[in-house]
């Protein structure tokens, strides 16, 4: 039995020439500019004898910092404009790798860095890319950990420091340690190398069952801001042994039947009638499945006010009053956005209680710390607002149906507890 948690991402657009993608392509095109500025005798080409070698290194470092900053810019543009594309997901990490590898090779060429440093970093990228390819071929997206994020930051800082300051590799060890800049540069680089190795081992550990290194122990997913459901995928061994009762229950939980949804929907409506409340929905990844379950019950019109299918970010903002600032700060798949969606649904539909869902059903679209199957729920009832995040297992349809079931349970509990 194995469990790999992978997470959902914001809605994906099919447009290619988005501002975010243009920034990514510009970043790649600027990499040769940095290499030329660092390695070539361009001051002589342009008859600029006043520019010394040290000044040339500072200019090259400034170009590197500029290119690095565009990594934040394209991500911000993609999220804030709701223009996350498959092309961007492919090119953005590739652009980072091209920049780092080009910078390392340039520093090796200058004799500033030993080749083994570049070898460790490049080898890690090949290994992680291979692991990701194997995982993707089996329908699993492995999200990056904080090790990888800090690894990138420290690599960038170390490269800038080595660009502006020679490491005195040809001098004596005593001379080197007398220069604090040299010591600091290597200290940052060693931290970057340590994080490089640790992040690689983290990827391998997460995918050990996928690459034949044996199963890893599954961890139950924890819901944030409230009670959450944990799901596990049960895999039958080569021996063909029967599933245990717990495994059978987990598999049953993943499969949501129509009768379950019908029963839950009827219970929601019954509880709402008893409390004299009206209900509504705001849905993203489920695309109206929750409201469809409620309206499928005969006589639901006296309680059910309606539903808003806000698949695009722009619809969330225009129809449900989700703030652009919240999306930029926390992302579309977040408890904060789910709460604003629920409150916005109550306002737009004129209902007393509303449930909202935002997440990613897969099979692709996972982002760091947001794997496929992650869903954020928001509940608003008589002025009380709450939210939680749940990680579901299964394919796209299973995640959507589990989301529908859990949303019905949440609004049922909220309505029944309302005074």
Description of the molecule:
- Helix 3 runs antiparallel to helix 4 and helix 5 packs parallel to helix 8.
- 57% of the residues lie in helices and 8% in strands.
- The chain is elongated.
- Helix 11 links the parallel strand 1 and strand 2.
- It is α/β, with parallel strands linked by helices and 419 residues long.
- It contains 15 helices and five strands.
Top keywords for this entry?
alpha/beta, 15 helices, single chain, five-stranded mixed sheet, 419 residues, elongated, 8% strand, 5 strands
Main beta-sheet strand count, sense and barrel state? 5 strands, mixed
Strand content range: 5-15%
Helix and strand run: HHHHHHHHHHEHEHHHEEEH
What's the total number of strands? 5
Tell me, what's the shape? Answer: elongated
End-to-end separation in angstroms reads: 44 Å
- Based on CA atoms alone, the radius of gyration comes out at 26 Å
Mean pLDDT: 80
Alpha plus pi helix count: 15
Class from secondary-structure proportions: alpha/beta
Strand order of the largest sheet: 2-1-3-4-5
């Amino acid at each position: 039995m194995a469990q790999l948690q992978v997470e959902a991402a914001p809605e994906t657009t099919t447009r290619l020439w988005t501002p975010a993608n243009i920034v990514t392509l510009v970043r790649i095109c600027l990499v040769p500019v940095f290499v030329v500025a660092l390695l070539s005798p361009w001051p002589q080409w342009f008859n600029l004898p006043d520019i010394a070698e040290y000044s040339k290194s500072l200019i090259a470092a400034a170009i590197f910092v500029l290119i690095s900053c565009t990594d934040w810019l394209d991500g911000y543009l993609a999220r804030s404009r709701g223009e996350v594309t498959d092309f961007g997901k492919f090119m953005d990490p590739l652009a980072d790798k091209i920049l780092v590898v080009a910078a390392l090779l340039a520093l090796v060429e200058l004799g500033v860095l030993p080749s083994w440093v570049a070898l460790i970093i490049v080898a890690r990228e090949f290994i992680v890319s291979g692991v990701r390819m194997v995982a993707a071929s089996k329908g699993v997206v492995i999200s990056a950990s904080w090790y990888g994020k800090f690894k990138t930051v420290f690599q960038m800082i170390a490269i800038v420091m080595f660009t502006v300051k020679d490491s005195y590799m040809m001098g004596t060890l005593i001379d080197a340690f007398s220069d604090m800049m040299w010591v600091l540069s290597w200290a940052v680089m060693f931290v970057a190398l340590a994080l490089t190795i640790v992040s690689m081992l983290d990827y391998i550990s997460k995918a050990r069952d996928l690459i034949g290194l044996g199963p890893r122990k599954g961890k139950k997913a924890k819901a944030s801001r409230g009670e959450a459901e944990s799901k596990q995928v049960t895999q039958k061994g080569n021996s063909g042994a029967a599933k245990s009762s717990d495994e059978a229950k987990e598999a049953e939980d993943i499969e949501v039947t129509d009768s379950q949804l019908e029963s839950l929907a009827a219970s929601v409506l019954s509880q709402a009638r008893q409390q004299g409340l009206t209900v509504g929905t705001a849905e993203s990844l489920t695309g109206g499945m929750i409201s469809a379950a409620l309206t499928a019950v005969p006589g639901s019109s006296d309680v059910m006010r309606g539903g808003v299918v806000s698949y695009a970010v722009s619809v969330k903002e225009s129809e449900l009053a989700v703030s652009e600032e919240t999306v930029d700060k926390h992302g579309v798949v977040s408890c904060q956005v789910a709460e604003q969606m629920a409150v916005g649904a109550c306002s737009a539909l004129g209902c007393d209680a509303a449930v909202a869902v935002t997440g990613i059903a897969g099979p692709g679209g996972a982002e760091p710390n947001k794997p496929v199957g992650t869903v954020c729920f928001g509940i608003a009832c008589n002025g009380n607002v709450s939210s939680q995040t749940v990680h579901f297992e299964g394919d796209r349809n299973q995640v959507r149906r589990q989301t529908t079931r859990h949303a019905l349970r949440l609004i049922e509990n909220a309505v029944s507890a309302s005074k």
